[in-house]
Design goal:
- Residues 325-369 are annotated as: Disordered.
- This protein is of the alpha/beta class.
- The protein has one domain (3-380): Alpha-Beta Barrel (TIM Barrel), CATH 3.20.20.80.
- Helix content is 26%, strand content 16%.
- The chain contains nine helices and eleven strands.
- It has helices at 3-11, 97-108, 129-143, 173-184, 207-212, 237-246, 273-286, 298-303, 307-322, and strands at 29-32, 56-64, 73-74, 112-119, 160-165, 192-195, 217-221, 254-260, 290-296, 368-371, 377-380.
- Strands 1-9-8-7-6-5-4-2-3 form a nine-stranded mixed sheet. A two-stranded antiparallel sheet has the order 10-11.
- α3 crosses α4 (173-184).
- It is globular and about 55 Å long.
Length: 382
């Protein structure tokens, strides 16, 4: 079936599906970053949870690991940041009570809300395993299942963390992840740990940790690099799929296709909806590690003709076609789909760059609000 037909069919399917609990095993999940006001019209978090389009929202970003008073610093643009909201005494850590309500509303709809650490201009990194472990304790107590007097979202418990590390040093992140895992062990609540490596393999900042610690998913940034979606001959999902099955610490890890939400969301790499849907449909059929699509970011995707909804419904329709006997009818929380093998469209050849590393310079694609004098902000694109 042509992708255009899949897009049309998918519009008829939305009413069939209820609000399902998040299922990591699906091949049509959509992760969308929120917090950096990419199009200048960012709405509150709960706005993007109003329908069944997005499954996972990483909050972007906790961009300073050790700020004033030794506490981290968060910046969610016009929704909550130290320059426009009250902070905990002696720190630059913002208090975000309004976001707490939104997080609850999203989680009630079965969405997974995680905290993304880093970003393009993040002040991040560790000097030792012990420092990484101490920071993991801090994150657990401030945002996850622990306790602290400095919890930006109050008693709201996030669903995990995401590592979008694009600066600093690569060392000691495995110790951080393993410490979070140790805190989560035995808990009734499931906690997720993801990362957002750039497509050149191995990733310069998080590659070692991906081999040494267990991650649930990687949101590979197939943009702003030679292996981006706009370079089909060098597109290397096959390399990441091979890594997932042979080198990853978690052999069941899911690999997502990361894409810009519109042409302004990245320096390069944006492709139209039909092209992205074809990439996703091909990956659903060919790669058992495929878990879905990641978009940067919620604001840009929403204002780009609901690009987010378009790719979600296309993935859903394609999955129903490929795996009709395993598709959810809306009455169950779980849809498990297996891999199949089909011919790859000639326009989407696998990369000749196999598992060896690349000498390409990785550009930093994500945006982050860089502080001006208190009360002002501006965007820097990378």
């Amino acid at each position: 079936m042509a992708i255009r037909s899949l897009l049309s069919l998918s519009l008829l399917l939305g009413s069939v599906f209820g609000a399902l609990a998040f299922d990591l095993h699906r091949k049509d999940n959509l992760a969308v970053y929120w917090g950096q006001d990419g199009a200048g019209t960012q709405q509150p978090l709960s706005f993007y949870c109003a329908d069944n389009t997005i499954d996972t929202i990483p909050l972007a970003f906790l961009y300073i690991f050790r700020g004033k008073g030794g506490d981290p610093v968060i910046d969610f643009g016009n929704s909550c940041a130290d320059w426009n909201d009250p902070v905990f005494s002696g720190t630059d850590l913002a208090k975000c009570p309004s976001m707490a309500k939104d997080i609850r509303a999203c989680q009630a709809k079965g969405k997974i809300i995680t905290l993304s650490l880093g970003g393009a201009t993040g002040q991040v990194g560790f000097s030792s395993d012990s420092q990484a472990i101490a920071f993991a304790d801090q994150i657990w107590n401030m945002f996850l299942g622990g306790q602290s007097f400095t919890r930006p979202f109050g008693n709201v418990v996030l669903d995990g963390v995401d590592l979008d590390i694009e600066s600093g040093t690569a060392a000691h992140y495995a110790a951080f992840v393993n410490r979070i895992r140790s805190h989560a062990a035995g808990k009734s609540k499931k906690y997720y740990i993801t990362a957002a490596p750039q497509c050149p393999f191995p990733d310069a900042y998080i590659g070692d940790a991906l081999n040494q610690a267990s991650f649930d998913a990687v949101y590979v940034q197939f943009y702003n690099n030679y292996c981006g979606l706009n370079h089909p001959s060098d597109y290397n999902f096959n390399t990441w799929d091979k890594w997932a099955k042979t080198q990853s610490a978690n052999k069941n890890i899911k690999v997502y296709i990361g894409a810009p939400g519109d042409a302004q969301a990245a320096g390069e790499g944006y492709v139209d909806l039909e092209t992205l849907a074809q990439y996703a449909s091909d990956a659903q059929a060919k790669y058992s590690s495929f878990g879905g699509v990641m978009l940067w970011d919620a604001d840009t995707a929403y204002t780009n003709g609901r690009f987010d909804k378009g790719i979600k419904t296309a993935m859903r329709a394609s999955a129903l076609k490929l795996f009709p006997d395993q598709a959810s009818d809306g009455s169950s929380n779980t849809t498990h789909v297996s891999s199949a093998t089909t011919a790859k469209p000639s326009s989407m050849s696998d990369s000749p760059h196999e598992a060896e590393g690349s000498s390409e310079v990785q550009k930093a694609p994500h945006e982050i609000l860089v502080k001006e004098p208190r009360g002002l902000s501006r965007f820097f694109k990378f």
